[in-house]
Amino acid sequence: MIILENAIADGKEKISHLVHAVKGDLNYPDTAYHLPITYAITGMEVHNASSALEAFMKAGENLLIGAEILVAEQEGITPEKPGYSGFIEDAVIRKLGYSLVDGSILGLCLLLGTPKSVDTAAAICRELQEKLMLTFLSGSVIKILTDAGVKVGLDLRLIPLGETSIKAVHFVDILARVAMMFGGVPPGDVNRLVTYAAQRAKAFVIAFSSLSDEEIAFVDALRILGIPIIQMGAYEGEEWQISSPDAAVSRGMEIRGITVKITAIPIPMACSPAFEGKSVRKEEMFVEFGGGRSPAFELLISRPAKEVTDGQVILIGPDVDQMQEGTAIPLGIIIEVAGQHMKKDFEPVFERRIHNFINYGEGSWHVAQRDLIWVRITKEAVANGLQIKDLGKLLAAKFRMDFETLLDAVQVTLITDPVRIEEEIKKAHLIYAERDERIAGMKDEDVDLYYSCTLCQTFAPNHVCIITPERPALCGAITWLDGKTAYEISPAGANQPVEKGTLLNAIPGEYEGVNSFVKKASHGEIDRCVLYSIMDAPMTCCGCFEAIAMVLPETNGVIIVTREYKGDTPSGMTFSTLAGTIGGGAQTPGFIGISKSYLLSERFLQAEGGIERVVWMPKHLKEEIKVKMGELYSHKGYDTLFSMIADETIAITIEDLLPYLNEVNHPALTMPSLL
Amino acid sequence: MNYSYSSGWPGTIRSVTIGATAEQGGTRVSSYQIGGDTDLSFINRSGKKPLIVYEICDDISLWPEVVRNTCGDIASDPASWAAYAEKKLQADCIRVNLTSTRCQNFTNFNAISDTITSVLESTGLPLIIEGSTDPDIDSEVFVRCGEAGQGEKLLLGTAEADRYRSVAAAAMAYGHAIIAQTPIDVNLAKQLNILLRETGVSDDQIVIDPYTGALGYGFEYTYSTMERIRFAALKGDSDLAMPMISAPSDSLTVKEIRESENPDEIAILWERATAVSAAIAGAAILVVRHPGSVQPVRDAIDSLWQGSRSEVEDGA
Amino acid sequence: MALKPLEIYKLLPKKNCKECKEPTCLSFAMKLAQGKADPESCPYLDEEAKLLLSSQTRAPIHKIVIGMGTRSFTVGEEYVFYRHDKTFYHQPGIIYRISDLSPEEEIQETLRKVRNDKITRIGIDLQVDGLAISAESGSAKRFKEAVTVASEGGDIPLVLIAKDPAIMEAGLFICGNYNPLICSATKETADAFCSLALKYDAPLVITADTLSDIGILATYCTGKGVSKILLDLSGKNCGEFLARSTLTRQIALARTALELSHPVFLVSTSHIMDDMVTGIVKFASVIVTPPLSTAEMTTALVLRQNIYTDPQKPIQMTPGLYRVGDPGRTSPVFMTVNFSLTFFTVQGYLEATRVPCFLLIVETEGMSVLTSVAAGKLNETVVKEWIEKTALADEVDSKIIIIPGYASPLSGRIEELTGWKVIVGPRDAADIGKFLTEERT
Prior knowledge:
Helix content of chain C: 25-40%
Number of helices of chain C: 16
CATH class of the largest domain in chain C: Alpha Beta
CATH topology of the largest domain in chain C: TIM Barrel
CATH architecture of the largest domain in chain C: Alpha-Beta Barrel
Helix content of chain B: 25-40%
CATH architecture of chain B: Alpha-Beta Barrel
CATH class of chain B: Alpha Beta
Strand content of chain C: 15-25%
Structural class of chain C: alpha/beta
Oligomer: heterotrimer
Distance between the termini of chain C: 64 Å
Number of domains of chain C: 3
Strand content of chain B: 5-15%
């Protein structure tokens, strides 16, 4: 057992000694990068022993530079034998870098040393190839593999660098060149080199046994570039990660955050968005789940990475071969996901996709959500070999494919066991309740960031919605949480974070950050956006608002008109007339386009005194919000207020409305004047 | 009374280089720097005259009939077609559309390298290369394109939101510029530029293609999108401050041309109207396919350029 | 900056008297804000308020009608620099110019072209708008004769082009009652031309060397009582026009120089098509050109239609059953929405496949596939409705219909309601060819 600490110390000394003894010219053929590692780290263009030594000393006796100098001298004297590449020219590196950038290669791996078992080494190479890694080999591992019949070469993505393990230095000079060619890393900028290596060129090393002290010291120096060294027991010390041979590759990929792309769904059923609308009729179904006929639920939860095994599907209970045709069976779908960038807030958003994904199956169908789901699979699909477990595989694959950047691992547990399902449903209920409470309770003060939405800018080029926890987008489709999730999933998309900045005025809701954001997003057209006001710099509108709130000066109040209401209003204008005037990105004091749910927010009209301002709304809207409005304001004693709001059955003209408001003593009449 | 209008444009359109002469490490006889505008198109000549590009292809069977009939044999070989475009048509650049890659199960990647190499030899004009549109072969196609044109500062097309990596890689590996195309949507154009930047492409390597719909078949959407992109860029949005290209692909197969008694006449008019409108909206590169279109478009651009504000002094 | 509705409301009497024909003062205020009402309609406004309102609320470019009857056309009343900010409201009138030296038959032939030549696109007839007689003979008598020929029928709007007021007067004597466009007054002839314009209440073009001079002349003519003015921004070439027209529109919208708030006139000086294109995209209201060939006319009219389409109201096709090629009883049936762009795109790709087929267009109020699916406008009911209205079942042997890829969520419901088998087609029309090949194998 070699002790790393000692070997590294000895190796350093030996390398230093050897570097001092180097003589003559040092030139690699067909490269614009001189001695690439030296060039990248020091910026010096080294072509002979004396400048080499100078560079080595200048860089504090950097071992990567040291190793390069030694190998450059060696290859200058004795070129590599056939079957080994030695230094690889720029033109080929350019191509390799291309593959790294375009995603055909996911990362880089270096294998060096002497493997104890040729089968182990071959298995590792095979795994790396399957996982789209580019592998460099140096040392006796090469001959051991080729003697056993394993084919190596550039097009096989197994590149044999040199007979001795120290030739692994070419792995590093390739990395250096890729950084300078593609990463825009200037020669001599070590910090950027390290950053590039850490972020873009995902590499790791698997070290077999029998490395010399110099080789150990040199390889260890790679850790500065963020490159982990994985070993399988030949070395002692914490510097290198230990792993069993069959887990070495996954370990390396895990540490570097390299995930394999899923491209296919390995089940005997076709899957495509084209099948989304197909339903499964009773005559066609093999069995069904949920829909009131049996217990069923779905749940998606995020977990820490070590608790999730990617692609794993567990079935608790019977599969199709034990089910009777035409019956209703329990079904629990639990999807556990892990990802560096995954957040708890995304859970409900991802959970909604279970519906789409199951419907993509040609022989599967799904409606509703949570514990109301109803799922069916067809007789035809089952006859073709579909099993319940396959639904799990479908979900695991689709989640990984569609959320590549966010999810690193997805595992699915399906429950068809009638006893077990009862336990799990109870747990699921707790989680649903917790989620509901979280969203319901969110206040604008609780967060530092609001979110913008520019989805409607095709029709209203200067319009931007500012979405807060208590004010959803005016189209009614996007809540603050949706905006946040959308931003985190697609940072360059239509939803961007808005820094609130300094609070300028609490009751009307004016923030410096919001103002400057709106000014920029509207190309300078709008200077201020006061969030809870209808009179002072209200939010702009596009055209897809669910309702319009507008001031009715004679009443000192506000009326609400909805898209569904086609009739006349006391303003003398219909919804469509109003929509035509206030839309298109304009900021029109006295008029705002809103979502219906905003009516139920305490922030609605906060600047002007709140919900007491509302004097009229269409009857259908009253019916829709009656209950929720009652809940919201009952503790404030506003039950009576609601009955004071007129509708089209009470008055359609201002002449009829005013007397009514006077009669019921509507609070708006005595509030401060709006104009 | 002297009339003037202060538009308050804080932004500038970036400059992109297309073509490398010997001093710049290539073999082109000319090199262009497009962009640099600080105002609307042609106003005050703050930018450059739009480039007039003639488009050829390597598989004529997929090309508009009116062009096939007019060009005849010259179109059967990209190299001679390119030479013709340079000498006879006097185009500023040539766009080589690798239509051969459109066929099912394309595998003849070596032909791609050969075609580009032979075109580079037969003409000294800077080249725009339009590669494959199939993500399955993109990787192979674009590495060949990039490599064959190394050092020549090609303009490589086309990167789209769901398939941009290979074009980006070729641009980065071999020093070319990229065409970034989105379906007539300002926000999507911005998003793609950000994606490209995150991949490592620098902003001065990007040309925006908002996708040019044919005149009469959606062109107004393109026109307005170009105006919006230019406006946003001049207002300071640096994610959109790149030059634009107008390269219609469905223009010459429209009904009005196919059913005309004199398809050449109307084909040239159709391309002229499209190119001039696009130039006014802000396009820095105008692509045409009918050989008869190059000179008319040039005449139009010259007229527009001549009359710019610096000659028309307010009140003078 | 234009006044906003509530700012305007504050200036109004707030009586809701309805004498302006609006139900409330607020609705009157909103109309004023859009420039769609006249402050004069309110009997209770004082002069100061009226003045403030009329300058602030009228359209930045005056509205002018040219010609009379069904072929008359309206120009001006524009509010934006970019069509995408709202829309361009009144497309430019395209006028064929002919010299008074031309023989009678030629004038008649040109008149016939203006009257009859048209192209029909998406169910709309597109034509040019008028005839211009240019006084090149130098003879009032000759000009008068030419105008007489041009006035035959009295239906086609006329533009009279003469430098000499006496010659112009001779022409106006014939057609002055038909609201022709008088072209044009210069600084020297301003008085005479203004009198003529006032006498016949006809719109007047004014011409000067520089934009500055045009402004001065406009102010002068307005002072003389002429309210219907067009600014000749022609210049030496289309580039000059572009520069002038850009500046003029910017200033008119900023409302900083009322003398430039008039529609724009352009007479072709460069190549016909270049002037036409520049004029159409950059705010010309009247474009005078030599007569166009059929190809030139088609190109110009299509461009004009495109640019002057309201971006927020996409053109709709009439729903129904369309045929691509000559489809028979075993031909495929495709279905899509009545948004014109979708129609043309799909039709184009279907034609390219050279496979004859049916294309069923259903009513979705011009919405695209994605929008209409999201809005619920494209649904199983509307598909059923149009299958029945077009008696589609009688046209083909098998009841199979191919729907757009993005309409896949509807596939099951369409099948259930209509009894037709639904095949989900590609999401991108460009894949139709590939789709058909695969379907047939």
